[in-house]
Amino acid sequence: MDNKLYVGNLSFGTTNEDLELLFAQAGAVKSVNLIKDRESGRSRGFAFVEMGSEEAAQEAISQFHGIHYQGRQITVNIARPREDRPPRGDGGGGDRPYRRYDGGGGGGGGGDRGGRGTGGADRGGDRGGERRGNRFGSSYSDEESEGRRRNW
User: Fold this and answer.
1) Exposure pattern of 83-104 as b/e (b: 16+ CB <10 Å)?
2) What share of the chain is helix, strand, coil (3-state, %, to 5)?
3) Are 3 and 56 in contact (CB under 8 A)?
């Protein structure tokens, strides 16, 4: 069962046919599975090649591991068995409605926070104490702005 090979660091232009021609030099090739990105269809840069026998697989490793192929130094090893992974929860929600978050709402912005480099308790800036300006600009009197704050 050690006749399945992992082939890594492939050029993104490599095809199944390219790999089949290359590995046929080492022996009979049963199958070639070039792994592609699900969304773009582009190669992910690795493949699995199943050779006809364990001897052919060992020959392929000795011939091709570390060679430069299509401009890249490829890796050829015996493929490890796929590990069982736990389910990934809800699977990402294929039919979930699109939600747009455009940063609206929440929190007051701006304000001078003072010097951030000081490690003391009083960092200066707009952290309480007496407010010199008010939330609605300096054109309102303190009484007007207090009334507006309560109704806000």
Assistant:
1) eeeeeeeeeeeeeeeeeeeeee
2) 20, 20, 60
3) yes
pTM to 2 decimal places: 0.56
Under a CB-based contact definition with an 8 Å cutoff, are residues 73 and 38 in contact?
Answer: no
Q: Which two tokens stand for residue 105?
A: 């709402």
CB 74 within 8 A of CB 8: yes
Q: What is the pLDDT of residues 119-150, one digit of tens each?
A: 555 555 555 555 555 555 555 556 655 565 56
Spatial contact of 3 and 52, defined as CB atoms under 8 Å apart = yes
Q: Please write the tens of the pLDDT for every residue from 70-94.
A: 999 999 999 998 888 788 765 555 5
